[in-house]
Design brief:
Length: 418
Amino acid sequence: MTKEHHCGRNIFFIVLGIIVIFYIVLNNLYMNSNYDPLTSSYIGAIMPLQIDDSTSMTCERETNIDVNYNLLVKDKYTLTNNSSQRKKLKLYYPRYGNDMEERMNIADILLNNQFIDYRIIVSGMYIGTDIELNESSQEYFNHIKSTHNQVLLKELEEYLNQKVYVYEFINIRYPKVEESSFMKIEYTNNPKIWVDRISKSNDESHQNKSYTIQLNEEYHQRTPRLISTEKLENMKLIGYQYNHEEIDPSISAEVKEYKTNLKEAITLCINDYIDQSNNREKNILDKSSICQSYFKQEEKSFKINHSIDELYIENILSNNIYYKYYNEIDIPAQSSITMQYNYELYGTKVYNEEEKGLFHYMSDYLTDLEITKQKVILNVESNHEIEDNDMGFVLKKKIQEKEMNINQEKYFVKLKEK
């Protein structure tokens, strides 16, 4: 029996060793594969600076583009105030990308060669499958252009103005366990309900309406909220659940109830989510613009259903976003300043082979700023080369610069691996 036991154990370790070696080989093959993120995606567009008041303003632009595993962009603007008075300006530098939570903070903005703080204004939000860029880069520009008018549909504004009751569950006390656990509530009437961090219960043992609130949630510690079109009747806590078993009814929570309108209630949930999300910088995201873009996104389904059925708050910071870096600056009369925007452009997956390895340079797209001179300096590192372009660049040359025709709105460069 002992020999059989040792034999079985040896076989186990041999099999385990083979699995480990197989995993290492596969991992090395993957790590050393020829996958290139630039030439496997539509890289995006370098957009021009936008300004709130372009009167008596002129500008010269110089854009440095370094091509390596991504595009490193240094977009510099020399802004001149030609008027006889000091001007206070609002500047918006537009970008498009997916996964705001990881990418939105990766930018350096310099005023006269000094780093300055900025805010992020969200102008468009695409939750779900609205924009996957599976067809062409034109979708990219169509969505950017569609975000400029952010006025909500009148019927949606009226819907959002309806009075609702908000229930916040605070100071929850319950037996601590390591894994997921839930607090259960129930009530007797049947209003329209929206929830944040609360889910509907499927417990058939209760005839009343019931919901569960997940506890021990470490990623987001925001307050669970239930929003109702009516005051909840006979609402009470009915227990504490762990692994689908009610192991201890000793749970308590304070329920804060107040009345507001639906728009303010949802805005509260969104703001709370932004505050508690894992962004590397605090107070950089403009909450009001995110909320407005969220409601604008909901407008699409509202036109069909005439209601907002789910909040989907968790998706806000992880989907496709059109946004702008925002600054306010002063320029003295008859004076100039420089603004420089340093960031990286990542690719967005496309299935159209003609779009892969492509990026665009936009000269005056969606801006009223008078740009009198535009120069592009392109540095293509040794692992890439230009396959095609309409900017006048030589295909095999590594470093080159060109002055762009200010009457042409859109240029392209297509890259390939060497």
